[in-house]
Amino acid sequence: MIFVTLGSQKFQFNRLLKEVDTLIAEGIIKEEVFAQIGYSDYKPINFEFKDFLDRNEFATKMQKSDIVITHGGTGAIIGAVKKGKKVIAVPRLAKYGEHVDDHQIQLIKQFDNLEIIEPCYECVNLDRAYLSCVDKKYCTYVSNTTNIINNIDRFLQEEKLQ
């Protein structure tokens, strides 16, 4: 299953939903698709959707999915890769009224440099990103949180000794 999640910010991402609809209609995407469409006003024709999911519904959809197609938000990307999902990340762009600026481009580039996601900088290239993602092996996400906490703890312990 493919899970499309567009986050909970008050911006639409109609472009992405329309492209997924098109790829299903053209037979490029053949598997089941479900989307959390957020504040988008485009209502998909070829796949099931809901505006917002509660935590349990979200977790269930994430668990069932093999591929997650999402906007370029850090939380959405990290949440999916931590669960071992293949992620196609598409940036929301200001020129389409999808965000206030284009910072998601830079975020996606950083994740792409780590080789943990499939970037798709323009929705018209979603077909290529999808086909690439299906067979590609990605690097495993490694969190630095533990290292940071250990370094802070070590620093505090050294301060106590002084």
Q: What is the name of the CATH superfamily?
A: Glycogen Phosphorylase B
User: What is the structural class?
Assistant: alpha/beta
Output the CATH topology.
Rossmann fold
Q: How many extended strands?
A: 6
| Mean of all residue-level pLDDT scores | 92
Q: What is the radius of gyration? A: 18 Å
Give the topology string: H per helix, E per strand: EHEEHEHEHEHH
Q: Which regions contain 5 or more consecutive residues with pLDDT less than 50?
A: none
* Sheet with most strands: strand arrangement: 3-2-1-4-5-6
How helix-rich are the residues, as a percent range? 40-55%
Shape type = elongated
Strand percentage: 5-15%
Question: Could you characterize what this model shows?
Answer:
- With 162 residues, the protein is an alpha/beta fold.
- It has a single domain (2-161), classed as Glycogen Phosphorylase B (Rossmann fold), CATH 3.40.50.2000.
- It contains six helices and six strands; from the N terminus they run E-H-E-E-H-E-H-E-H-E-H-H.
- It has a six-stranded parallel sheet with strand order 3-2-1-4-5-6, with helices on both faces.
- Helix 1 links the parallel strand 1 and strand 2 (33-36).
- The protein starts with a strand and ends with a helix.
- The model has no long low-confidence stretch (mean pLDDT 92).
Feature tags:
single chain; 162 residues; alpha/beta; Rossmann fold; 6-stranded parallel β-sheet
What's the structural blueprint in terms of helices and strands?
Layout (H helix, E strand, L loop, with lengths): L1 E4 L8 H12 L7 E4 L11 E3 L4 H10 L2 E5 L2 H9 L3 E5 L12 H11 L4 E2 L6 H10 L9 H17 L1
